[in-house]
Amino acid sequence: MRKKILIGQAGGPTAVINASLAAFVEELSHLHHISYIVNGYEGLANNNIVNGTDALHDQIIQHRNVPGACLGSGRYPSDETAIKKSLKTIMDRNVDVLVMIGGNGTMAALAQIEQLARENKYKLQVIGIPKTVDNDLGGTDHAPGFASAASYVAQSCVDNSRDLMAMNNFEQVRIIETMGRNSGWLAAASGFFTQHVSEGPHYIGLPEKSFDLEEFLEVVKSSIDKYGYCLAVVSEGVRLPNGLSRSKEVNGREVLGGVAETLKCIIEEGMGVNVRAETLGINQRCLSLDSSSIDFQEAEQCGTFAAKLLQNNITGVMVSFSRGEDSLNYMNLIDVPLRDVLAAGERKLPDEFIKDLPKYYKWLSPLIAKNHMVYPTPIIKGDVYAET
Amino acid sequence: MRKKILIGQAGGPTAVINASLAAFVEELSHLHHISYIVNGYEGLANNNIVNGTDALHDQIIQHRNVPGACLGSGRYPSDETAIKKSLKTIMDRNVDVLVMIGGNGTMAALAQIEQLARENKYKLQVIGIPKTVDNDLGGTDHAPGFASAASYVAQSCVDNSRDLMAMNNFEQVRIIETMGRNSGWLAAASGFFTQHVSEGPHYIGLPEKSFDLEEFLEVVKSSIDKYGYCLAVVSEGVRLPNGLSRSKEVNGREVLGGVAETLKCIIEEGMGVNVRAETLGINQRCLSLDSSSIDFQEAEQCGTFAAKLLQNNITGVMVSFSRGEDSLNYMNLIDVPLRDVLAAGERKLPDEFIKDLPKYYKWLSPLIAKNHMVYPTPIIKGDVYAET
After folding, report:
1. Distance in angstroms (rounded) separating the CA atoms of residues B336 and B333
2. What local confidence, expressed as pLDDT, does residue B290 receive?
3. Which end of chain A is more exposed for a tag (fewer CB within 10 A), N or C?
């Protein structure tokens, strides 16, 4: 049976989200009719759909390695009205299958649409393809997009460390702020490439832990004493005490950030040292230079696996990675019910990793290509030659 | 004759400054005695010198591809006292040759030390090796460090553009702030990888031009009308009118920045659109992922050429690139008198490039490796399918 498929991308783009789309299209465009949703759920609710021609399929496949979401993505509140309008688009167009590539919010909306279709006795197959840089998506070991972002964070930190140790007569503290929303996966990845203790990061602030200002200041002070500088990493989701937080709202969605800048002011006032606040910014989710090759492959595998689920008439599921029990390195592709994804909720960095970062880095290592050079021992420590 | 050499690194590090040092050491460590200055001019003034052993030479050579300045660098005001103390270090140690790797300030201090040595009838050979990410160093076509930074800026902009076009129902304007101090070379490089006019940057703010707020707002508005979003790039050195500038002083040195953040506030207040200010930050000068391979080679060539000048007893000069008259692609290594470097002053982006960016990109192209993928035509324009 030739199915009518609608596919879209939702939420913040990643460096590899187009790879999932391209692989899916390549697999199915000759078997079924695919139409594309412009700008994610907003386009679905507002019937902003583009008919898939051979030329368009080809153009999408050409976007395989391009960052950003080539169909348009964005944020859109999935309230009751939006869900109803989305189903109307689907029913008016006699759509058989809805496929969305996205994170937690995307999967929640997908489940609501499926539910409403069922209540309306409309037969709809729904499939979710995972995507997140924050790794906060439940129901899967990890999701495409995260590894590229984690690798970028880790490389930025070790390179910033080498820069900072050279500049410590001008700048003693550098605070690097990462993405991650309410989960610390990205911030904690900052030390992944560290080979020498003096490289740091000497402090990692995670949203999962309550922030202790005194402890933080103590680490900064002792690192300066020991190395001549301090490299600190904080997640955008760290909640500062006493209303110091600078998060704000844009279109009803909380936009995090400003933790590094706030801590910079606190340190400069209290310690009389120079501090730089560095926000790694959108490059974490879009810079194509560091897209992990494994991440790309996995993003493609997710698209291909979604095509297989579609062919097998599986519905109400998200594509998911399950790690082989016998080997950390072996990833199985499976499907998990959307209700399990939702039940899992926003995924946090587990305690076992927070307490044991090397254990986390072992978990992370099959996801990140080993293209990082091993840096030699630093030569200068503060203002003295560091004897090796 | 076996010479006593002192070598140091000064100013902000780059991704390739260690390559110049490594090449120099590799060339001469078996012929002369090399000692190393810790933390640039501060170390020279304060007699903070490390004796060069075979083990240390090897360790330095291992830093060839590592970002940061492995000897320690930093900022230090070269006032009369510092210059006198520097010469004292040199004379007390019977140093024959002083070699410094750095930018404008480094070369100025080098010339002052040479002058003072001459007044004291102390025979001192001085050689400068160029380094800058801002490309504001006079007396040379360009300097190592710049190409890697320019390439990073250009890649960040084209990737941010793909991200922004996917997010335009959430964020309509993104303002990217680059380094460059008072010169626009880095900011202007932002469009180097652009293949499609919709990618932008739709506006580039340069320190060489006076900032026209009305013109800027007009470009932002018309880009949003045309594409659904606007990607603007501003140099940290752009001077905003009416005291809006947010530059500040750290240790007597003006630290630029904050232009993007200020413009963000102005647009959000005036236009009712969402704006993100992105500062590309220290990764511009340290991220090893995008160090242009040509930049690395040139940094090494500068170190090797400095060794040759030393062997030939040339003094009072800086290593310099001169572009072949008959071919844009051919770079000659020459030496230029330090007084000519100083006379040239802070190097600005010339008018011919400001008025004709494609001409600038032609000039830039032999410095940047051609590893950028050609991105296909964007699929979505605002909220409609962009027919090709």
Report:
1. 10
2. 65
3. N
